[in-house]
Amino acid sequence: MKKKQTVFSGVQPTGVLHIGNYLGAIRQFVDLQYTNESVFCVVDHHAITVPQVPEEFHENTLKVAMLYIACGIDPKESIVFIQSHSTEHTELAWILNTMTPLGELERMTQFKEKTEGRTKKEGVLAGILNYPTLMAADILLYQTDIVPVGEDQVQHIEFTRMLAEKFNSRYGRTFSVPEAYVQRDTARIMGLDDASKKMSKSAPSSNNYIGLLDSPNEIRQKIAAAATDSGKEVQYNKIKKPAISNLIEIYSAFAESPHSEIEKIYKDKNYYEFKNDLAELLIKKLAPIQEKYKELTKNKKQVLEILYGGSRKSRIISQTTLSQVKEKMGYVI
Length: 333
Ligand code: AMP
Ligand code: TRP
What we know:
CATH topology of the largest domain: Rossmann fold
Radius of gyration: 21 Å
Bound molecules: adenosine monophosphate, tryptophan
Helix content: 40-55%
Largest sheet: 3 strands, parallel
CATH architecture of the largest domain: 3-Layer(aba) Sandwich
């Protein structure tokens, strides 16, 4: 079957992947790969925009690659590789940086959040500012149509569209103009300890998230400790019951059952019973991912071969795009 469109996405190797990453992004990667040309990248160059401990950075990069595969990304269906193995990404990022207004970068929410309260003198790094340009390069090199991401990345995709359109209008059509692909219910899974902020790898407490590799006991303990709202009804209402609604969203996504169905099941039950069942559901759904991951850790050589193969395949596409870009701009090639 001819695959329809091109899908590209990436995840940073900056710590434990959690169920927010899975529901907001990786699960969509898996679903989309069968009907679309798909390229999935471990974006290590993005991770170093915040200081990394070398050993951890190395481990985390392989961990994300193995989790991609453990979650169901099939290297026979998709191209899976490490960003830094395909040098076209940083080269196109440089070129795009020369076309990017500084103001556009400064107004990005992620940049503002990461630099909040600090002055330039206090060490706001240029890498954080230029982060979206590298992300645009990642996407545009593959003539991408669809970018599956969580809601926090939508602004970066809009920025990518702006750069693609700018280049196309200056030099003639060169890039596809991509669109964000966001799953309405799971685009922003909130923290378990604080439903007013998104679930995040960099949260101060590990009670904020369920890691994809958390043990059954950790899952039980974290769900038991998760914040709830006043009252005792298991009801979906994002305004009045933000914490319970977040837990219902997680339950609903893993059980593949609508909110209303879950409300029905727990109509005469309390938070405690709901939380117990949610913990057991998560344990059951994460078990096959954890098993596959464990197998892969015993076969790191095979994982590296997949990644090197992925890089070779990715470069066939990215080198073609980069050559077109340079030729149009007048580079001697
Ligand atoms: P990152 O860990 O920042 O590289 O994110 C990887 C992917 O997961 C991106 O597409 C994010 O938008 C998505 N993501 C991260 N946190 C969440 C969350 N709390 N809810 C839904 N999606 C998320
Ligand atoms: N910025 C994304 C994040 O933090 C990661 C990323 C880098 C990405 N390059 C990308 C996502 C290209 C989609 C497409 O989640």
